[in-house]
């Protein structure tokens, strides 16, 4: 019982940090960057961080911890597999829309694409995410997939799941930092320089810290072995399961 209470407190913290991430990235771009539009202006660019933080980090992280919720244990796993895949699909769609926003803005304003380290990491993360979702759907949701294939694919799928979460966080915080360097130039555009730490810089820096905190809580939930979903046939009421190591934290 104590382990279950601790889990739900940690999960509540995860949800609160996720909501804070979405609220703060929307507030930053609405209040300091001029709001949102889809007209090729800088307001269109503002959709990019909102969709990437929401999709690549918050929804992705919450999809990853679905199997850790004790209320899902002892029930048919298929509905939770579908929920896991569905939330990840929504995460992927939002990420793609976020990429469309920035590419369209760059092309409209004749700005080069994919030249920064942030963009390289971001596009690689999205490519890995695409491969991960397709591999997961094919291996774990198609009834015709042989059990031997699932066993073969699972280690790579598990490992890549954790890597994508970390890369998504790296992409977001590097993008926040890059945006602040571009936007807060001091005398050249009438704003205070980033080094002076104006209110916008404090807001965006706080967003980056909360994103990292969210990721750490998600990884804590996933790596805690006593919070892993028990295998079929577990003893009712027993919360802790056998030690299977960190490589099984993204179980499908």
UniProtKB/TrEMBL annotation:
Residues spanning the membrane: 7-30, 50-70, 82-105, 117-144, 156-176, 202-222
Key words of the record: Electron transport, Endosome, Glycoprotein, Heme, Iron, Lysosome, Membrane, Metal-binding, Oxidoreductase, Translocase, Transmembrane, Transmembrane helix, Transport
InterPro entries tied to this protein: CYB561/CYBRD1-like (IPR043205), Cyt_b561/ferric_Rdtase_TM (IPR006593)
Q: Where in the cell is it found?
A: Late endosome membrane; Lysosome membrane
State the superkingdom: Eukaryota
Per its record, the protein catalyses: Fe(3+)(out) + L-ascorbate(in) = monodehydro-L-ascorbate radical(in) + Fe(2+)(out) + H(+)
Question: Is Mitochondrion included in the keywords of this UniProt record?
Answer: no
What is an example of a GO molecular function annotated in this UniProt entry? transmembrane ascorbate ferrireductase activity
Chief place of localization: membrane
What are the EC numbers?
Answer: 7.2.1.3
Which Pfam families does this UniProt record tie to the protein? Cytochrom_B561
Q: How does it sit in the membrane?
A: Multi-pass membrane protein
- Mind telling me which GO cellular component terms the entry cites? late endosome membrane; lysosomal membrane
Cofactor(s) needed:
heme b
Q: Taking every annotated instance into account, which residue ranges of this chain make up the domain Cytochrome b561?
A: 13-223
Function, as annotated: Transmembrane reductase that uses ascorbate as an electron donor in the cytoplasm and transfers electrons across membranes to reduce iron cations Fe(3+) into Fe(2+) in the lumen of the late endosome and lysosome. Reduced iron can then be extruded from the late endosome and lysosome to the cytoplasm by divalent metal-specific transporters. It is therefore most probably involved in endosomal and lysosomal cellular iron homeostasis.
Q: How does it assemble?
A: Homodimer.
Q: Which PANTHER family match?
A: CYTOCHROME B561-RELATED, LYSOSOMAL MEMBRANE ASCORBATE-DEPENDENT FERRIREDUCTASE CYB561A3
Name of the protein? Lysosomal membrane ascorbate-dependent ferrireductase CYB561A3
Naturally occurring in which organism (per UniProt):
Cyprinus carpio carpio
